[in-house]
Amino acid sequence: MRFLYGSDNSVSAISGRLRVAAGQASRLILAGMVLSAGLYALPPAGSSRAVERSFLGGNACDSAGEAGFLDMPAGGKGIHPVSSSQGQSSAACHPSLAAEIAEDSPESIESRLASATPGLVELTAAQAFARNQPSAEAAIHKKTPSPTSGQAKHIFWVIPAFQVYNRREFTPLTPQEKFHEWAEGAYDPLGLSAGAFESAVEYSPKDGFCGYGKSFFNYSECFGSAELDANISSFFGDYVFAVLLHQDPRYFRMGEGSILRRSWYAVSRVFITYTDSGHNTFYSSALGGTVLASGLSNLYYPAQDRGFGLTMSRIAWDLGDTALYNLAAEFWPNIKHGLYRAF
Questions:
Q1: Do 263 and 217 have their domain in common?
Q2: Are 273 and 245 in a shared domain?
Q3: Which helix H or strand E contains 170, and what residues bound it?
Q4: Residue 46 domain flag
């Protein structure tokens, strides 16, 4: 346990080199952030939403002939204004034929209307298409997510939440999937940006950035050490130990029930997780990662932040942070749903 106190000169020399390594690690992390941002910027396959706007005349039986707009799918035929003279033979003037056409398939509209007047063909085709379009009210409700729909990738739009799932969605992860989820959260651009901002806030007039000093290089050491803490803890806790011990590193939301019950559940998941077979077990993998990261931080933290007592304090703070994260993950969908309804 001597290395926890940093009293040996050789350990101090190693600590100096590791602090430099922490600065280099911050540069690598920033490079990963830039790379990740580039990958995230790529549009997903099949995301084209080209929509053509086509001009449509008003009621064909109305001599005023007021004009409106109708959304048409990409590549669809345009609908042209209907003149008042053609309007005398429109769908509004032939309700029985219009009802028959509206219930028919789009492919047979032209053949069914081959003998009808041009104005009737154009207008009734538009009515059949418009009948299949969602209303504006339905579109608004579709954009408003429910508390249990989908998986939020970030909490409060910034904090990575790639390992948060709904409780009913449990399926075991392969080792490759565990690694992917760890890497996705560790190198998330928004999460790294939040860490960079937090390191800047750690500045004090007396000790500078995290006790390293006041220069930009000292800021990079502060940022690098913070990211090194997080990556050691998550890499071993959420991947290495999770694979070896066959434990699931994800947080599964309860999603329903009283606030007290859900809060107790969220805090309890700091110490309890699922095995790969779906049974509850002691969360030894994550706790092992926390203890390992807190101990190794004595090799690169400033001298005034080393020691056994401070190591225990860091373990306690990390467990408290995990409890707060679980609470935020548990209730964030409800908070976001309320914000969507309010605004």
A1: yes
A2: yes
A3: none
A4: no
Beta strand 203-204 pairing with 208-209 = antiparallel
Tokens of 82: 């209907």
Total domains present in the chain = 2
3-state secondary structure at position 343? coil
- The dihedral region occupied by 209, where left means phi > 0, alpha psi between -120 and 50, and beta the remainder, is beta
Compute the distance between CA of residue 138 and CA of residue 124 in angstroms, rounded to an integer: 23
Share of the chain above pLDDT 70, in %: 56
Residue ending a domain, among 107, 131, 155, is: 131
Whether residues 101 and 152 share a domain: the answer is no
User: Beta strand 280-282 with 208-209: parallel, antiparallel or unpaired?
Assistant: unpaired
Assess contact for 144 and 337: CB atoms under 8 A: yes
Residues 210 and 283 in one domain: yes
Q: Which tokens hold the place of 143? A: 């954009």
Q: Is 136 within the bounds of a domain?
A: no
Quote the CA–CA distance of 329 and 325 in Å, as a whole number.
6
Residue with tokens 């809060």: 263
Residue with tokens 């109708």: 70
Q: Can you give the residue range of the structural domain that contains 83?
A: 52-131
**Does residue 112 sit in the same domain as residue 233?**
no
Who's near 29: CB < 8 A, 6+ residues apart? 187, 192, 223, 224, 227
Residue range 8-20, pLDDT digits in tens: 444 454 555 555 5
pTM of the model: 0.57
Which of 78, 100, 131 terminates a domain? The answer is 131
Helices then strands, counting H and E runs in the chain, come out as: 13, 10
Q: Is 323 helix (H, G, I), strand (E, B) or coil?
A: helix
Q: Are residues 83 and 187 in the same domain?
A: no
Look at 154 and 136; give whichever has higher pLDDT: 154
d(CA 189, CA 160): 9
Strands (E), the chain: 51-56, 68-73, 154-155, 159-160, 164-166, 203-204, 208-209, 251-253, 272-274, 280-282
- Tens digit of each residue's pLDDT (9 = 90 or more) over 46-76: 333 333 333 333 444 444 443 333 344 444 4
Is the backbone of residue 272 left (phi > 0), alpha (psi -120 to 50) or beta?
A: beta
Token couple for 12: 């101090």
